[in-house]
Design goal:
Blueprint lengths: L3 H4 E4 L4 E7 L1 H4 L4 E7 L8 E2 L4 E8 L1 E6 L2 E6 L3 E4 L5 E4 L6 E8 L4 H13 L11 H11 L5 E2 L4 H17 L8
Antiparallel strand pairs: 1-2, 2-3, 3-10, 4-11, 5-8, 5-10, 6-7, 6-9
Helix pairs in contact: 4-5
Length: 180
């Protein structure tokens, strides 16, 4: 089992820290369980998971969610499950940190994706929204496939088609399928 130090990652641009509680390796691929702490104003862009259900339990504070067309505010003790392919986002619109337990089923390669994205953030290789440049994003999208967080509002097939010519350019520049 990794040390506690290696179980926690942080994204300054997203205002979020994750601690991996149970990983794909530890659960036979069934589950990735994390604790997330989000600063006031932090949030995720609207996205979809192709094959994963995402479940949230609010541990401290309150978080605002948009799931499909529904807007919800959840507080400590509340839970929320989002089915695969359902557009969603969550934000901390309060003036205090919010702490959540997040589960993704099945785990897929999502831990490695989070580690890559947060390492890119650490090294200053993302924009203010926490996204890498389009060429690196195309390479990551192809490398992580069904584990990737696809943008909501744009059909996944269109995103894959847009990334198809960009990924070889990104690889030619030395971008890999993950980031250490």
């Amino acid at each position: 089992m990794p040390s506690t130090l290696h179980r926690r990652i942080e994204s300054l641009s997203l205002g979020q820290a994750l601690t991996f509680l149970r990983t794909a390796e530890e659960t036979g691929g069934e589950l990735l369980e994390m604790e997330a702490v989000m600063r006031p104003g932090a949030g995720t862009p609207p996205h979809v998971h192709l094959l994963q259900e995402e479940r949230f339990e609010i541990l401290d504070g309150s978080a605002s969610f948009r799931v499909g067309r529904r807007r919800l505010t959840c507080s400590a003790g509340d839970t929320l499950a989002v089915k695969p392919r359902v557009a969603h986002r969550f934000r901390n619109e309060s003036d205090a940190d919010v702490r959540l337990r997040v589960e993704l089923r099945p785990a897929l390669d999502t831990e490695a994706l989070f580690r890559s994205l947060y390492a890119l953030d650490r090294d200053g290789r993302v924009n203010r929204l926490g996204a890498p440049n389009p060429l690196r994003t195309a390479v990551l999208a192809q490398g992580f496939g069904d584990s990737f967080f696809w943008l909501a509002g744009v059909p996944v097939g269109v995103q894959r088609a847009a990334f198809a010519p960009l990924a070889p350019l990104g690889r030619a520049l030395g971008y890999g399928d993950s980031y250490p």
